[in-house]
Write a structure and sequence with these properties.
265 residues
Length: 265
């Protein structure tokens, strides 16, 4: 079994509840040890460790932010290209239909279908399967009724099917891009959590500097465990999403389930 499939088993690490439980348990254990210690707790090392943790956290945030920007730009660009390809397909379809007389029922219905599809805008996607059926069902019924085509081209019905099939393929890809846009909220959530935790780390640093009373000192002394565990969990989550996006992209033309990458035939 490949490393990617093994890594996919750790999807639970992306759940906020699991993350809070892991970080909270480690921090509670460290805080308990700090309160149980009978020696004087020196917060000097705590400030140093928190500073280093903050630097690593800032690196993780920049990585997550860069990935989110890349993911959104890639998805938006791909969606715009596919929409242009969809319009180009309809343009070629109209050009093909102009070679025949619109007096024939099949050509007239195909032209009407093309006009209706050309009214779709980018905001109309994702296009559900039921709505696509509303566009193509009438022309498909007419093509089935005229199986012999028209006198000038007996295969015109098959050619119309080819154009509609190509348009349907592009619409399918457009729907996938819309889903990717919806999934982007998960990646934005990662960055939001990271920024919130980094801000909390700065607050803890200020509390360590102020040190209002001795009762709070053990909790502050264990703060590096809290933020260290948080950084590890954050990096694991980022690694999971990066690995999943990488596998989803390459799995279209490569077999990633074996020990070696094998190009699909």
């Amino acid at each position: 079994m490949s490393l990617g499939k093994n890594f996919a088993r750790f999807q639970f690490i992306t759940r906020p509840g699991v993350q809070i439980a892991i970080v909270g348990c480690l921090y509670a254990f460290a805080t308990g040890l700090s309160y149980a210690a009978r020696t004087r707790l020196d917060l000097t090392r705590t400030v140093t460790i928190l500073g280093l943790t903050g630097a690593v956290a800032a690196l993780a945030i920049s990585t997550a932010f860069g990935f989110v920007v890349f993911f959104l730009n890639q998805t938006n660009t791909r969606k715009h290209d596919l929409f242009y390809r969809f319009k180009s397909t309809l343009f070629d379809f109209d050009k093909f239909l102009r070679d025949f007389s619109a007096d024939h029922e099949m050509i007239w219905a195909a032209s009407k279908t093309s006009i209706e599809l050309s009214k779709l805008q980018e905001d109309d996607f994702p296009l559900r399967g039921g709505r696509w059926d509303e566009f193509v069902t009438p022309i498909c019924e007419i093509i089935d009724k005229h199986k012999d085509g028209i006198p000038s081209d007996p295969f015109v019905g098959h050619r119309i099917y080819c154009y509609l099939g190509h348009a349907e393929t592009v619409i399918h890809d457009l729907n996938l891009m819309c889903i990717r846009q919806a999934l982007a909220s998960k990646y934005v959530g990662n960055v939001t959590k990271a920024l919130g935790a980094l801000g909390f780390l700065v607050i803890v640093l200020l509390l360590v500097y102020i040190a209002p009373n001795e009762r709070l000192t053990p909790a502050l002394y264990a703060a590096p465990v809290l933020f260290g565990a948080w950084v590890i969990v954050l990096l694991a989550e980022i690694a999971f999403w990066l690995n999943r996006d990488h596998r989803n992209t390459l799995s279209v033309f490569m077999d990633l389930d074996g020990e070696k990458h094998i190009f699909r035939k």
